[in-house]
Structures are given as structure tokens and as C-alpha cells.
TrEMBL record:
Domain of life: Bacteria
UniProt catalytic activity: nicotinate beta-D-ribonucleotide + ATP + H(+) = deamido-NAD(+) + diphosphate
Record keywords, A-Z: ATP-binding, NAD, Nucleotide-binding, Nucleotidyltransferase, Pyridine nucleotide biosynthesis, Transferase
Keyword Ligase: no
Source organism of this protein record: Adhaeribacter aerolatus
Name of the gene encoding the protein in the UniProt record: nadD
Protein name (record): Probable nicotinate-nucleotide adenylyltransferase
One protein family per Pfam: CTP_transf_like
Membrane listed as a keyword: no
Family classification: Belongs to the NadD family.
């Protein structure tokens, strides 16, 4: 089984994440896409980050009806901050017979050489890259393990959603209905 891994804080998960995951699961050679909820991104600091279990629950609500999409809390039990190579290695050991593929936005590639053991990632794992506007030039474009996937782009961000919630503006259609309901129920970012 070939599984794409889409890492993120998902604070909150939104339609851009869901469209991307669904596109990758149904329009590539992947059997499934797992959203790997990261408790702490080593490159980001956020005071508005929901508790990891709340973010995990929001992802579960969002993908509940799609059997090709899954969610993983694997990084909750790993040393922090979590590094992609460590998670990939752990999952590869745990799920013998699975082939894991890293899914990243094109805007990550100029900085990919700063990732911990990025050479090992490229040695052992394929990387599926989706387009992002405004990406500066990068050297890894022709690497044999990097495959560009022409996934649809949706310019929406979790920051925009959090700002809308704080300002009591609508987030309808930016997140699934179940996610919006849970955000309102729990009064996140208010």
C-alpha cells in the first residue's frame, strides 16, 4: 500500500487541506493520504495553536466520510520538536510493507536542504510536490525522488480562518460544517 503523508499543524484543517488530500488520494498512484498532525513545527511558533488533541479531533471530523483519507497522531508520542525524517523512519518501521510518500507544497523546496537529514528523506522516500504561487527558485526541481503533482491550488489559510473567527465573521465553506460547528461549540479563538 502506498500512502501519502501530509504533515501540518491543521490549526484548523480547512478545505484547501481537504481538496489537496482528496486530489492526491484519487488522482495519483497513492492508495490513501494520512494527515499527520504535528504537535510542534520546529520552524513555527504560534500562541494561537490549539491543543494537539483538539486539532486531531477537527481533522477526524473533517475526513470522517472519506475512506481514502486518514489521520495520524504518531508525532504526539515522539520527542519534540518532531522532525519529518524521524516520523518517516518510525512509520516505515511500524508499517512493514507500506510505502510512504511525503507530500509538500512547492514553497517548502527552497528550504528543504535546511530540514534535518533531508538527504536521507530523498534517499528513502518519494516526495510529491503540489504547486504554490510565488515559490522562489530552488535546486531540487530535477531530483529523481521529487515528483510535481498538478494539484488544484486554493488560496486559503488557517490564519485567515482564525482571524475570521476572532472577528465573528463567517467561515462557512472554508471548513467543513462539522469543523465549523465544533469550533463554535468550543469557542476556539474567541
Amino acid at each position: 500500500m502506498k500512502v501519502g503523508l501530509l504533515f501540518g499543524s491543521f490549526n484548523p484543517i480547512h478545505m484547501g487541506h481537504l481538496i489537496l488530500g482528496n486530489y492526491m488520494a484519487y488522482n495519483t498512484d497513492l492508495s490513501a493520504v494520512w494527515y499527520v498532525v504535528s504537535p510542534q513545527n520546529p520552524f513555527k511558533k504560534s500562541s494561537s495553536l490549539l491543543h494537539e488533541f483538539d486539532r486531531l479531533h477537527l481533522v477526524s471530523l473533517a475526513i470522517d466520510k472519506n475512506d481514502r483519507l486518514g489521520v495520524s497522531d504518531v508525532e504526539f508520542r515522539m520527542p519534540r520538536p518532531s522532525y519529518t525524517i524521524d516520523t518517516l523512519t518510525y512509520l516505515q518501521d511500524k508499517y512493514a510493507g507500506y510505502e510512504f510518500v511525503l507530500i509538500v507544497g512547492e514553497d517548502n523546496l527552497p528550504f528543504f536542504p535546511k530540514w534535518k537529514n533531508y538527504e536521507r528523506i530523498l534517499e528513502y522516500f518519494e516526495v510529491y510536490v503540489y504547486p504554490r504561487s510565488g515559490t522562489p527558485p530552488y535546486t531540487l526541481k530535477d531530483h529523481p525522488k521529487i515528483k510535481t503533482i498538478p494539484a488544484p491550488m486554493l488560496d486559503i489559510s488557517a490564519t485567515l480562518i482564525r482571524d475570521c473567527v476572532r472577528q465573528h465573521k463567517s467561515i462557512t465553506y472554508m471548513v467543513p460544517e462539522e469543523v465549523e460547528g465544533y469550533i463554535k461549540q468550543k469557542k476556539f479563538w474567541i
